[in-house]
Each structure stands twice: as structure tokens, then as C-alpha cells.
Amino acid sequence: MTIETVQADPSALGGPALFDTMSTMRAMRRLKPDAVPDETIDQLIQAAVWGPSGGNMQCYEYVVVTDREVMARLAPLWKRCVDSYLATTGKYAPKGMDEAAYGRMVAAIEYQRDHFADTPALIVPCYRFPAPRLDEEGLIASAQALGPAATERMMTSQARFQALAEGSCVYPGVQNLLLAARALGLAANITIWHLFLEQEWKQELGIPEDMATFAAIPVGWPLGNFGPVRRRPVADVIHRNRW
């Protein structure tokens, strides 16, 4: 696997501004402690709300943390989650990423861990998927449409289907939020490490038991500079018409 530096193409469909934003939207983990205005955070949430939601159900909610006392209580949870990640999956560089580059990324992760209490804002996207409205007639018609084998597979993959259905309703909005942050000059990065201790996070933030959380997104003004991202070349990831 190869990784290349991505440069925006001003001639790309949609104009140069959006593509330049996407091609320089690095995960920025080193943040200034300066506060982010409430109205700016509202802009981020507005961008998220504009994201598509499966079936237009719009059952998302966003917990926004800016209170330093609350952030200080979350910091030990964040440390435990990050330490767990770095001891397991994060112990090794991803394939195609050299050790020096990965070392720099780990240093940024550790910096964020050690300065988490100073994070200006944390956004936690949540979603409560509504109970399905099913009836016998509809279930029979569904089974007939899928066929016996596919119906059986569907019955055994309900947990995965549910997770993907929820995620497809949440993550388009999260991507909008990240794009909006970059456009406004804010640093942000998406993590799901909080899921190691999701129950503790939900208790600390008063999130209802039946509400699922999908990310913990630290937001603030960057200490570093935005620059081109490094990604796999398009030619290496495309399969045209079939695999």
C-alpha cells in the first residue's frame, strides 16, 4: 500500500474551495486553550444538522461540553481510553505509514491526552434509533422479496445492520461538522476511543441509557498549521464496474 500527499485540484467539480478544504483537513490534536465562541459552535452543529439522515428520521442529538470543570472530570476517562488504544491497536504503525510519521502522530495523541482538560470544546454526537414499525404482512412481503437464503442471512446479521443504519444517520452530519470546522479555521478530530468506557462517559454527561454515542470530537483553535493530507492514490482504491 502506498500513501501520497493529496493536493487540491482547482478544476475539480464543485469548485476549488470545497476541495481545498477537504484536501487540507488533517486530524488536528494540538489545540490552544482559547475558548471557541458559542455562536461558532452553533455553526458547527448547524452544519451537522444539514447532513443527510437515513429516512430523514433526524433522531440525532449533540452534547457540547465547554465547561472546564466538566472537561476536567472527563480528562481521566479520556486518558484511560487513549492508554488502552495505544497499548493495543495503536501500538503499531498502520501498513504503509513509516515509523517516523507514526511516531509524530502518537506524539500528537499523547499531547492531546495530557492536555485534554484544556480542550475548549468537545462534541459528542448521539443517536436513538426509533423502534421499527413492522407488521406480519410486511414481514412476509419482505421475505418474499429477498428470498429464503437472504432472509436467513438478514436475520443473523441484525446487529450489524442496526449499527450501520444508525451510523449512516449520524456520520454524514459528523463529516459536515468536521468540514465546517476546517472552513472556520478550527482544529478538530473524530475519535471513538470513548467507547472503551462509554457507560462512564454517559454517566458523567447525563446521556440517557438508550441513547447511543458515536464519537468524541475535540474542537479548538489549532496550535499547528493545516496542510495537505496523505492518502492512498485514487488509482489504488478504485474498482470499476466490479472488484
UniProtKB/TrEMBL annotation:
Q: Where is the Nitroreductase domain?
A: 26-221
Give the SUPFAM superfamilies listed for this entry: FMN-dependent nitroreductase-like (SSF55469)
- Asked whether the keyword Oxidoreductase is assigned, the reply is yes
Q: Which UniProt keywords apply?
A: Oxidoreductase
CDD domains named in the record: Nitro_FMN_reductase
- Family matches, as Pfam families: Nitroreductase
Entry's InterPro entries?
Nitroreductase, Nitroreductase-like
Q: Name the Gene3D superfamilies for this protein.
A: NADH Oxidase
Which family does this protein fall into? Belongs to the nitroreductase family.
Protein's UniProt name? Nitroreductase family protein
Gene source species: Streptomyces stephensoniae
